[in-house]
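Re: that chain you flagged

S.,

Sorry for the slow reply, it's been a week of failed gels. I finally had a moment to sit down with the sequence you sent. For the record, here it is as I used it:
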Amino acid sequence: MKYIIDLIEDVRESIGNSGEFLLSAMLLKENADDVKQLIYAGEASLNAFTIDKEQKRLLFSINSSATRVSIESLIPSLLILDMDAMMYELRMDVNSQYQNIEIIGFGKNEEEKKYILFIKI
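Prediction finished late last night. Pasting the structure tokens below so you have them in one place:
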């Protein structure tokens, strides 16, 4: 399970808060032959994020809009949160079938200027 504070720290350490990076989701699925192994199953751009104070989570979503979430639009809104909110979980709505999916890790693609959130289904 990842939290807002984990995201903030990783963004600072891995890409130096570079605002030009866009957020993407990378889907990983369990290997049928070896459940400890995860297999790449696709990637999509993140289109929106919401800070849900009732459910104590930062929810990212993928939809059909042309809007893309960038580090520049995300990080300033997270840095102004209080200390309790830093422990909100990171979650993602992929589509109507896969909602409230846990984010399991982070990554980056320097060449394409993508900051990646890993999810597992």
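What I noticed first: The chain has a mean pLDDT of 94.

Talk soon,
D.
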